[in-house]
Amino acid sequence: MTINQIVSQITSYGTNHPQISTVLFGDFADKLDDSDIVYPAMFFDLDSAQFLAKQLSYTFSIYLLDRHLVETNALEVISDMALVGEDMVARLRTPSNTWITDDTINMDFFIEAEPDYLAGVRLIATITLPSLNNRCQIP
Asked: What domains does the chain contain, in order, with CATH numbers?
């Protein structure tokens, strides 16, 4: 399985979720003030990769964000996005996937005020695939 295929699968998880309106892969910091983004949104990016003895692991950051009003506590938005995060973890751990996920997927909470009032969660998920690390596989 390639990185493109993994990104496509994670994108479909976000696109098919009933509480996610926009899904973007890649560096999204400069896109947060884009008028085309409809919230709640899922942004995700590839953080790192590791070659293990007979496996290859990719670590992704998955941000689940929604707007909150200036005068309200962002706790309700964080609570809602944490529930969406639970759904995402369940999808990443679906037995039909060709990868395995770590036993622990960290979830961080945050609130942003620039460029928009956003709140949500960040999941840090590592996806591991079998890899022979065999030079005979090289084309």
From this structure: 3-132 (3.30.2000.40)
